[in-house]
Structures
1.
Amino acid sequence: MKYIFGPVPSRRLGLSLGVDIVPLKTCTLSCIYCQVGKTPNPTLTRREYIPVKEVLDELESHFKSGVKTDWVTFSGSGEPTLNSGIGDILRGIKAMTDIPVCVITNGTLLWDPQVRHDICQADAVMPSLDSALESSFHKLCRPHPDSKIDMIIDGIVQFRKEYQGKLWLEIMIVGGINDTPEELHALRNAVRKIEPDTVQINTVARPPAEVSAKPVPLKRLEEIREYFGENTEIIASFKSDSKKSSPADIDDVRAYLKRRPGKVEDISSALGIETQETEKIIKQLEDSDEITLKEYFGKHFWEYKSQE
């Protein structure tokens, strides 16, 4: 499979089948906390980066296999709404299955009526909003030069008015950047304008694009949750006790690490395989010089090396 991955345990969606419809690091932003790395050239240009038919063919094959999936989730290597075919893919999924669909987006293109129309078919949309002030938005998210935070917030507000599904707004809290009283006050005002069903507070948990992206402790997250009020939650880690009946596949582990760094226990949980089997595969990938072990926040993560 080139364009779908999983299903993997998600902190928010149970067993989630990922749909990745843009090439690696095709995004409107280059967030300092991004686990996929830096975006060389942020773009606002929409086009059919991945052919609609190829994505739908893979999805059809998956659904016929009978593998359990709780959600189909647009996420992965970049910003999914940059693919101009996302509306056609959503319609195709709805014609194949009753499994609910979620679009995880950075929200930067929701000012565009066509983007809002394309994703309104989803059962849930999860936009992010990490800052409501222009200066910190640029420091934290390093957007395309034509992106302005007020335009982005207005786009999310308009989408909320038009959209009938669940809107879950994620805020990534990065220590020393958007956790100050001024930042949080501006964010809370923006949240009140948007009126999402839920606000999800998160912090840096995986190796970021920049070492300056620091996590904040749980106690501070709890204070921020209280500040934002009801319908606000801290995203907790998802633990899966499901195991594959088939043997572990080196290609599954390789595909996981190409999308994100991970600890052995993360990989085992995500792919539903025994830790011992994961360790064997990690050893194979290390021996073939495909991966390397790096330390972040006092923890060790396996990371896929660039093959360029």
2.
Amino acid sequence: MNYKCADIAKMIDHSLLRPELTEEDIRKGCEIARKYKVATVCCSPSVLALVKQLLKGSGVKATTVLGFPHGYNKTETKVFEAEQAIKDGVVELDMVINIGKLKSGDFDYVKNDIKAVVDAAHRKDVLVKVILENCYLTDELKQIAAALAEEAGADFVKTSTGFGSGGATLEDLQLMRKTVSEKVQVKAAGGVRDLDMAEKVREAGCTRFGATRTETIMEECYKREGKTN
């Protein structure tokens, strides 16, 4: 490997978004995140304050989602969600675009929806990742959505929620990476379940990926590196 396991860890947004997760599940998930020193834990808004508390002193950041998972909340609702999450101590936000508006060709709405959240977040130095939910889009719409996200000031474009009919593909990641400038990072979500796929999304230009199988990925990495954690 031409990188260290710590490099892979810092690409991981450890996902704690399944609706049936209990408080015990959240606590265990945060223990995993602390153990492997991942980039962030991405959780639901209702447990964000708890997650931030559980991660205190670890260097792992707390992140949450807006308009999740369908993206059809009103813009004002997404902005309110963003502002509340910022009060709860979030440092990054993953928002879902309005997919129906995009597919209807109402690109101004989509851009303004993203920009309203980005403006609210950037006032507090919070980063925004924009979820395109590529499984519902043509390649042309994927490119249009990624370009709109950049025009609106987004920090990342992201493939998926992980709750749609499909997740990240290497083809989509390559398409997104070539569509946006180097100012915008790319995140994969949905389908990164082992180290091989983590390496592939890294090679495709991703700087971050969502994962529920963080422990599997990291233990495989340490094994290849010849270390134990």
3.
Amino acid sequence: MGSSSQSLSLGEAASRFLVSLPPEAREVSQQEVYSLARWYGWERPFAELTAPDIANYAERLSLSDADYTKKLELIRAFLVYAKKEGWSKGNLAIHLRPRKAKPSPRILPGQGLPEVVSLTKQGYAELEAELAALKGKRPQAIDEIRKAAADKDFRENAPLGAAREQRGQLEGRIRELEETLKLAIVIDEKQGSTSKVSVGDSIVLRDLASGEELRYMLVSPKEVDPTRGKISSASPIGKAVIGRGQGEVVEVAAPVGKLRYQIKQIEH
């Protein structure tokens, strides 16, 4: 790794990576890649990023997002590119591991009711559509297992193991969606007369350090979709802006220090 690579900042590395992408992929990746750069410091040398830094970043995302696989994929592509360009000594991407979701605890008598899930009208409809689509895939998944099981050599039957794992993931997601929809309440978007930020709102934030403007939609952790700018209301930014008004300045604690944003616009 040359001296120029050792002095390359995280922000510069992020910009070079994004320039290397086709326009559509660049638009999808920019928000999340820049978020990583802001989190650990725009001017921090990329070479100083460590395996624990990357593992902690993945863990931070998992605390707020129910499904954060897309975010991890975007960051992983950036880290793989960095290794290829010689900006890091090791492959940091291998430390970006998703944390397995914990199974929902059983509710025993006397423990009270499970927590209600707040969803936007659009989010509820999207989860319903996903559930219907996944249920439609059940016959195909069962058929894949049957075909793979037809191979009598079970000792090295990798297709059978893969088919069973895929079926397990399918059924797990179906159960998760059914439980979410059963507990969900749809947010009344007509109650948008308040000037304060709430779940379901779209906001424009101005980074007071760089001047960059960021557009987000605050949604339930169950609706998170980084490729469409949907962030969790339980994320660090979400927690900072909920209940705040247009023009207010909010602070988000990050390893690099306090990130300060001004709420420029609220769309209910």
